[in-house]
Design goal:
The structure holds two protein chains of two kinds. By secondary structure, chain A is an all-alpha fold. Chain A folds into two domains: 60 residues, no CATH class; 241 residues, MetI-like (MetI-like fold, Orthogonal Bundle), CATH 1.10.3720.10. Helices cover 76% and strands 0% of the residues of chain A. Chain A has 16 helices and no strands. Chain A is globular and about 65 Å long. Chain B is an alpha+beta fold. Chain B has two domains: 166 residues, D-Maltodextrin-Binding Protein, domain 2 (3-Layer(aba) Sandwich), CATH 3.40.190; 241 residues, D-Maltodextrin-Binding Protein, domain 2, CATH 3.40.190.10. Helix content of chain B is 43%, strand content 12%. In chain B, strand 11 and strand 12 form a beta hairpin. The termini of chain B are far apart. The chains are: A mainly alpha, B alpha+beta. Chains A and B meet through helix 14 of A and helix 3, helix 4, helix 12, helix 18 and helix 19 of B.
Chain lengths: 324, 448
């Protein structure tokens, strides 16, 4: 009787979709465990456990461990709180790294966003099968492993045997120190990052463009709206959430970039292209100061986390408004 | 009655009892003396790893130890990352090959090796003082200088270009013989500057990197040491504001215009390529560049001659980058690990390793510098004779940032403070005084 009541309750709650036949064969022993297993939330938690364990082991634990490391002294024998961060802030070399990281990330994201936006519009206008072909081709830079493609770029910029310089020399233009002079080297690392990241923006924007209802454009056309007005009052507002989240995601990834700078310049010349990750590697791994390396790599975390909170809150608010 | 072919319960019990008693008896089989896991440096020279593996297998078979060898590349600093991870996790290989500065960094996790070093020194002669600087912590050796991977970076120059344009017969001045030739004492940094100018005019400038990688830091370190230009002294005081530093920066300012303009962005392969392609008259490197030249551009390879670097006012210094073999103090089989290291450091094994690497590897013990490999390698025959530092060179094995305390020196080395100073003066046009002030601030930060 008791079993039937439980089964009916669960069925009424929508937890049991199948027939009641198995319940009638239930043994009264171990009922507590079975009841636990039959509760929807319990099953959900159990099914999520592997994922939670993975996130806990591979994301949360390393992140917290990095925070802990960043608060130890050089020999990792004493807790120094925020001492490493304060020390870094007073170092001219690190102040330069902050500036360079901001220049690198902001300019790369701006160019990636602009080029991605332009490419998405161009692709959107290409009809049918050709669009798929172009989309595939334009995605290639993003698909190739970054370390490999950066090596290719390094060969193009190679100080002594640069293919770019060879072409320039053919036309009588003197060689450009692509990796050897401060601003050229900064330009080179940003260029490669833009080349790599623009397809990601393109594909995100293209997806957003495809989701804009065609009727809006038709209505706007009837009202006499031109191309600029359609972009300004329909496309951009409709893409705003995707734009925000793509820029935020890209900003975080670009600030954390390592491969491009490490392979192209290793931070040179004269440390003028170091960004957080490469400088953290030099200080932490190569120079044997792991807490300082951890502090460098975590430096942008609060700022980016705060930015993420604001951007995501804006997205949630706009989504709620649209739903309402 | 038991059926034929079937095992009875009684037989099963007897067999079980017999098997469980086996550990009570000492049975000499492979692995009977435990297991060892070894992380050696993945050698550049093809074939060198195979010889190392054979030597280890021989020791393992003789000592009934189950040994697993991993050859870990230094490309992308993978070996540094592995060492850092093992030190943090307190687990991993029993033996590790530690690059130059890593022994100091991980000394607290390394087993003392004084007994092994003591026996090796008494059997094979003294070691370069630099080994004490890099491997001795609180009076105790934490690692043994490794044969595999240890390298000098002397000059490797073109015989024909020097003869035709610098008026210098390299084989006569630096012969493959027990005495240096006439004119050796005049091989100074000033003579080097003159030769650099002559070769630059001839279209074959010296290939001296000035970036932030090891090859750049090493030759610049020898230059600074030659001028007695210490950035930090042995007591840890910042001593960069000195006349010797001013002199060396002034010298570098005169030298840099005679080098290719892109040397500020060269990496450790750029100088090799400059020599191999025939574009450069001189580089500072182990014999790997020459070996590749012999393979890929034999005309150039046959004209290369390795010889000591120039002398400065304070002496002649040859860059030395030793590797070390150390045993983690969390290793479960430390005695076997030490025994393997001692075995590999014996004369016969050292010679096998040096020969397999075509003379690239350098043993740290004075009694091992008579291996025939350096006299016999060629073309031209004897080109590597002066690769190891020999008594007739009147040179010291050195490393950049010496004699600063190693925990400071490793930062000066890896953050390339010296090459950045030169780049500031020669590339960015900063004054020497301003550059010294910048270096002072940097070095003070290293002392945290």
């Amino acid at each position: 009787m008791e079993e039937r009541r439980v089964a009916e309750t669960l069925r009424a709650a929508g937890a049991v979709a199948a027939s009641s036949a198995p319940w009638s064969r239930m043994s009264p022993r171990g009922g507590g465990l079975r009841r636990f297993a039959r509760r929807r939330s319990s099953v959900a938690v159990l099914l999520c456990l592997p994922l939670l364990a993975l996130i806990g082991g591979l994301v949360l634990y390393p992140a917290l461990y990095a925070v802990w490391l960043a608060m130890l002294n050089k020999h990792m024998t004493r807790f120094v709180g925020l001492g490493n961060f304060l020390f870094l802030l007073h170092r001219p070399a690190f102040q330069a790294v902050i500036l360079q990281s901001v220049i690198f990330a902001v300019s790369a994201v701006v160019f990636k966003a602009l080029i991605g936006f332009l490419l998405a519009h161009l692709l959107h206008a290409v009809p049918g099968r050709s669009q798929r072909v172009w989309r595939g081709l334009l995605l290639l830079p993003w698909v190739i492993p970054l370390a490999m493609s950066t090596l290719g770029w390094w060969w193009l910029f190679d100080p002594s045997y640069s293919a770019f310089n060879w072409v320039l020399n053919v036309f009588g233009v003197p060689s450009v120190p692509g990796l050897g002079a401060t601003w050229w080297a900064r330009f080179s690392v940003i260029l490669v990052n833009v080349w790599y990241g623009a397809p990601f923006f393109m594909i995100m924007y293209l997806a957003a463009l495809k989701s804009v209802p065609e009727q809006l454009y038709e209505a706007a056309a009837i009202d006499g709206a031109g191309a600029w007005a359609r972009l300004r009052y329909i496309t951009l507002p409709m893409m705003r959430n995707i734009l925000s989240i793509t820029i935020l995601f890209s900003l975080i990834v670009t600030f954390a970039n390592f491969d491009i700078v490490r392979i192209l310049t290793a931070g040179g010349p004269q440390d003028q292209t170091h960004i957080f990750a490469t400088y953290a590697f030099v200080a932490g791994i190569q120079s044997g100061d792991i807490p300082l390396g951890a502090a460098i790599s975590l430096f942008m975390l609060p700022i980016l986390a705060l930015g993420a909170v604001f951007v995501l809150r804006g997205i949630t608010r706009r989504s709620a408004e649209q739903a309402g | 009655m038991a059926q034929p072919g079937r095992v009875s319960r009684r037989t099963t019990l007897c067999l079980g009892a017999a098997v469980s008693c086996l550990p009570l008896f000492h049975i000499r089989t492979a692995g009977a003396a435990g297991r060892l896991s070894v992380g050696f440096w993945d050698h550049w020279v093809p074939g060198a790893n195979a010889v190392m593996q054979r030597l280890v297998d021989r020791w393992a078979a003789a000592n009934k130890v189950d040994v697993r060898v991993d050859f870990i590349t230094s490309v992308g600093s993978k070996n540094l990352l592995t060492i850092a991870a093992e030190a943090e996790a307190r687990t991993g290989h029993d033996i590790q090959a530690f690059p130059t500065w890593e022994v100091q960094d991980h000394a607290e996790h390394l087993a003392p090796m004084d007994d092994v070093v003591g026996r090796l020194v008494s059997a094979h002669g003294r070691m370069a003082p630099l080994i004490d600087y890099l491997a001795k912590v609180d009076g105790s050796y934490r690692a043994v200088p490794a044969i595999s991977g240890s390298q000098y970076k002397p000059a490797c120059a073109r015989i024909d270009i020097f003869r035709d344009h610098a008026g210098m017969d390299l084989q006569a001045v630096f012969p493959a013989a027990a005495e240096m030739g006439p004119g050796y004492d005049s091989w100074t940094w000033e003579a080097f500057l003159k030769a650099a100018g002559q070769c630059f005019k001839a279209g074959a400038p010296f290939g001296l990197p000035m970036g932030q990688t090891s090859d750049a830091v090493d030759w610049v370190g020898a230059l600074f040491n030659g001028f007695g230009a210490e950035l930090v002294n042995a007591a840890g005081d910042v001593t960069v504001r000195s006349d010797a530093v001013r002199q060396v920066l002034d010298y570098a300012k005169r030298l840099m215009p005679l080098l290719p303009p892109d040397v500020y962005s060269w990496d450790d392969a750029s100088n090799n390529r400059a020599l191999i392609s025939g574009k450069s008259a001189l580089i500072f490197n182990p014999p790997s560049a020459w070996a590749v030249a012999v393979r890929d551009n034999p005309t150039v390879g046959a004209q290369c001659w390795t010889h000591p670097p120039p002398a400065g006012p304070k002496g002649r210094f040859t860059p030395f980058l030793p590797y070390f073999w150390g045993v983690w103090n969390f290793s479960a089989n430390q005695e076997a690990a030490k025994d393997l290291i001692e075995f590999l450091s014996q004369r016969a094994q050292a010679e096998a390793l040096c020969t397999a690497s075509h003379g690239y590897d350098i043993p740290a013990f004075a009694g091992m510098l008579d291996f025939p490999v350096w006299a016999e390698e060629g073309p031209p025959k004897g080109t590597l004779y002066n690769y190891p530092v020999r008594p007739q060179h009147h040179a010291a094995a050195s490393i950049a940032a010496w004699p600063a305390p190693p925990d400071l020196a490793v930062q000066i080395y890896n953050q390339a403070t010296m090459t950045k100073m030169i780049a500031r003066v020669a590339q960015s046009g900063e004054t020497i005084e301003r550059t010294i002030a910048w270096a002072e601030a940097e070095l003070s930060g290293f002392r945290r």
